[in-house]
Structure formats: C-alpha cells, structure tokens
Specification:
Blueprint (H helix, E strand, L loop, with lengths): L12 E9 L14 H15 L4 E10 L9 H11 L5 E4 L2 H4 L3 H15 L2 E4 L12 H31 L12 E4 L2 E7 L1 H15 L4 H10 L5 H7 L21 E10 L6 E11 L10 E8 L4 E5 L23 E3 L4 E2 L5 E9 L4 E10 L9 E8 L9 E6 L5 H9 L7 E3 L2 E3 L7 E3 L6 E3 L9 H12 L17 E3 L6 E7 L5 E7 L15 E2 H19 L2 H9 L8 H33 L5 H38 L3 H5 L10 H7 E10 L3 E8 L4
Parallel strand pairs: 1-2, 1-3, 3-4, 21-25
Antiparallel strand pairs: 5-6, 7-14, 7-16, 8-13, 8-15, 9-12, 9-14, 10-11, 10-13, 17-20, 18-19, 22-23, 23-24, 25-26
Length: 695
Amino acid sequence: MKKIIETVDIIIRRVVLYLRLSKEDLDKPTKEAISESIKNQELMLRDEVAKHPDWEIVGVYCDEDFSGAGTYRPDFEKMIKACENGDVDIVLCKSQSRFSRDMEVVEKYLHNKFVEWGVRFVSLVDNADTANKGNKKARQINALVNEWFLEDLSDNIKATFRTKWQNGECTASFAKYGLMKDPKNKNHLLIDPVASEVLKQIGNMVLAGYGQDKIASQLENKKIPSPYEYKAMNGCKLKLPISKKEDKTSILKAGSYIVRISLYNQYKQILRNIKSLFVFGTDELKKYDSKFHIRVRSISEDLKLYYTTQYFYDIDNFDLNNLDLQNNEIWKPLKVNDTIPDDICYLASNNEELDRLIETGFELEVTLDENRSHNIYKLFTRSIASDTDTPFSFEYEIRKKYKWSGRVVYNMLRDEVYNGTLIQGKTRRISYKNHKCIKAKKEHWVESESALEKIFDDETWLAIQQKLNENGRSGSDGVKHIFCGKVYCDVCGSILHKNSSKNSKQEKTEYLICKDKQNHWANCDNNKSIKLEDLKKYVLESINSLLDEYYDENTLKELHKEIVDKDLFKDQTDSLNKEKTDIQSLIKKKKTIFQQLYDDKATGIIDESDFTSLRLKYKEDVDKLNERLSTINDELKLIEIKQKKLKDKDHLFSNYRHIEELTPELLDEFVDQIKVGKLENGSQRDIRIVWNFQT
C-alpha cells in the first residue's frame, strides 16, 4: 500500500514592526545613530516574528522623539496608509502605548479601521491582540490609563514651565534675535555681541527719523543677515518657514535663494580624495547663466571649494579622474563670503577624507536677476572618490532667502525683552492632544523684569517706543521729517503733517500744515502752512539763544543757585493720568455691559447672531483702549526719566556751546513740543517751544 503524503500550504502573514521613542532620549552621537531603546524594541519584535514560521516582516516603521498623543508622527502615518492599502496583515508593537497613548486613536484604529481593513494588532508586553475578543476590555482600560498618564504629564509640565517663568527662566527652544542661550544655563539668556549691535543700529535709525521700511532696505543693502538667516548661519536648528508653493529642488522666479548642498558617505569604509563637480542650469543646457550672482555663505571645515571660468566639456561627459583642483591657473579657491564671478563655468569641491555617516557640504546665496523665459534651473552634480568607482550624489535643498522687512523691524523694537523684561506664556496649545497654538489672555502672561541684561537702557527704549507711536508719515526717501510727532496746531491741538509742492522751475518746497485740512477746516482756522526750513531756522536760533544765555557769566551764577520746580511736566503728567483713569473706568463699564449682554442671550432676549456681532464690537473696543493704555504708560515712564535726567539746564547745556545743524537727536534732547499759532496780518504768527526743562 502506498503511503499518501499530504502537503499543507502555509499562508504567509505580512507583518510590520512599529517602534516609537518619546523625546526623553536625545543624546545620540549623529542623526543616523539609533538609540539603544529603539534597538531593543526592534530585537524583541524580530525575536517574536522568528517564533512564527508564517510571519514575514515587510516593513519597519520608526518614530523617534515623538509623543504618543495624537498621530503627529511621519512613520505612523505611512504605516496607517500601508494598512489601508491592504499591504499589511499584522501590526506588531512592544506595547500598546508605543502605538498610541491616545484613547481616541486606539478606538479608531484597533477596534474600527483595523477590523475594516483586516489588520490584526499585537503587542508583546501587555498581551494586546485584536484577534482575541476576550481582551478588548483590557485594551480599552490600558488606553484609558495611558490617556490619564498623558493628561497628568501635561499638567505637570505646564506647572513646571510656569514656575520657571515666574523665576525669570526662559523655556523657549531658541533665543530671540540679539540674545543667546547661556552655555552654562540653558534657561538664562545672554546678549549676543554681534546681533545686539545690529539692534542698536536699528534703534539709532528709528531715533534719527527713519521709517521701518527704509531701515529694512538699508540693512539689506549692507548685507546684514535677517533674524532667520542669522540663526541658520550660526547653526541654529530652528525650522525655517517654507511656503507650500516653494520648489525645494528648482529656481523658477527671480529673487534671492539659499542653496544648501550636503554629502553623506553611506559606504562602510572611509572614502578618500572625493572630487565633486557642480553646475546650475536647465535640463537642456547644463551651464551657469550670467543672470545668476553667487556668494558663498558657509563651507564645512573638511571641504575645499573652487571655481573656474574655463569651459571643458558637458558635466555628464567630464572625466572626474582628470580633475586637477591644484592647478591654480584654472581652479581658484573660495572662502566664506566670497562672491563668485558671473562668468563661472563650474564649481568643484574636494574632501581628502570622509568617514561613514558624517555630513559635509556648503551653502550658497544665489540671486537670479530675471527669468522672463520661464526657465527651470536645477543643480546638477557628479562625485567620485579614489577608493571606489561607484559615483554618489549630493543632496541639496533650495529655499528663498528671508529678508529684512518693515514688519520684522517694528515687531523687534516692540519686544520688551530688549529692555530686560521677559514675557512668557503669550500662546498656549489647545490641549496635550491638539498641538495648535492660540493666543493666551494677557492676564495669563508671566512677566519677569530684570530677567536679563538690557540691550536698550530705559531712556533709549522709551524714546524708541515714542518714535514708533508718532503719528507721522515717512517721506519718499523713507525718512520721517525732523519735527515728526513734535509740531502741533496751537488753535485746535491737531498734529501738523508734512506736504510738499513744486514751483514752475520744479524746485521742491516742504511745508507743515494742520491736520484739520483733511476735514476741510471744520474745526480750525489755522489754515496757512509754515515752511519746514523756516521752522528749522527758528528752532535752531532759539536753542542757540538759550546756550548763549547759559554761558553768560552772570546768568550762569544765577542758574547754579536756581531750584528747579519738582512739578516739572506736571500738566502733561496730570493729563495722562486723567486719561488713564478714564480709560480704566470705561473698560470696567464695557465689561459690565458685556455681562448684561451675555445674560440677555442666556434668557433669549437677543439671539446668537446679534450676540456674536456685539461681542466682536466689544472686543475691538477693549483692544483699542488697552493699546492706548499701554502707550500712556510708556509716555509716563518717559516723563519720569526726563524728570530725573533733565532736572536743570546744567545737565544738558554743559554738553554744547553752539549748534550749527539741527538733528533729530538734538531736537529730542531740547524740545518736547512745538505749538504753531495762526498767521496774523499776513506775516506774523506765534510759535511756542515747550522745552524738556524749565526755563
């Protein structure tokens, strides 16, 4: 009798391993190095797969430094996509918490989507297995416990951060422009000696009457890196904002770009004498265009960079073994900040040695004048090492260069951190699961005065704030006129604005006129302008007259005996304090009215639509009032400083003997306000100067 042998086909189950590590383990030697925890997770899971002959690993997904809350994990999303596409039979994890600590995610996938897609979930430590219906409740309890863990952890972290804020410790990931993290204490900020000087230049330009846009333009002309670019150039890992519309591999429009070129040795051995060639061009013509202007931003220490204006062959047909970079007649060396000639033909680099998994490379600043022909410019590279004939490619990324703007300048000069006050907690995340940031209420902010050294002293800081608050327009050259924010109508109290006109010979004349002109002189009859030069001359003569009087010996003796009235600027202070009290009362009144509106909505007197409209109006009004309160407080501080520093004429007048030219800085030192009266009898008008001292 023949023995019948039956064969059984084994159905192979496709298994993917999912590994995750939270942000605790950050001490990795290189970005390619894998943490010990991740290694152990993978070994454990591979041992489990080896016990099942019908299991086959088809993918390994790993998320390092990611929280288990939500699905904000790149490899997690890829794994879920593979499951949805039907490419996975089993998802294997060390524990259910590695998959997710979010109860909603566990319910969505383990008990719904995975069932729909025919995917089985297995975890080793807590014995979770969706094929076993009996432990569903255990999985749900685990998910709930993990959720509680996340919530408690979030509350503890928030409390810790708030305590640090109250102690004046900075918890931000990156220091603001002009500041740097203390190497000895990451929660303490120090002044950046380079960027702080740029801030001081900006402050001086504001005090000199320059508008924000003009300042930004001058900084660009001086090739001073913007805050984003400065941080990037100094190795800061701050993620630069890149528009979704930007192409990271090509240049399509005119403008300035940053091209970052990186090389990794992915071979097991050390590579030596690596020669590389670079050309920026189009697919049809792999050649530099003369419309490109290139500057070197950075070069790795182990790399040497060269250029040549001599054309050899097309880059694809060029024999890199014949590349003699030591030939000084052909190849010219480059260093950081060098500008490459516009008739460049090739860029080349050389590394004498490159170890495995070490990054090297350089950065270029590329400016394209115009691209009316709509070319698509790309970077073409070729590389070879003496140890191997296998070529390898450079990785590169192109992004737009971030420039200075008027808004950036304005926002920086409004940040009180430069006056020594650290304000934290301005934003908050919606929850530990939803990481979207929203603005926090101002009463929840934490302010720490004198938490760090001041870049601007109190007087300079408040003077800058006053300049920024001035109701004046910049001229065509981007500079505000010298009297901007200081000249007022003595009839109606409105500020005087600058205008200009040209005569038949096209000669330009600048003059100041009452703002009430915009209302067709509805409230004021001071409708005659005053020439800017005439006012300059009058003020300069008035200051020099005071200086002459001061240096008269008899007057000088009397001045030394003079006791200055302690109520200097009293009228101004009283007026501001009264306005401050009125605004505070008005805000309190509006809050009461809003509470009544809320009660009316709750009782059905007004509907939701009306309430929403009224609430927006209330918020807008209160925001404007709070903004004015902030301005008043700045003005009161400035007056206090003036009272201390300018108690008498000696403090100011001893610095000058005679002034030849009136400057914004001099004007700020001597003059508080100028009141221009109505023109009488066709030629006479009263001009009153309110000095920064008692006369």
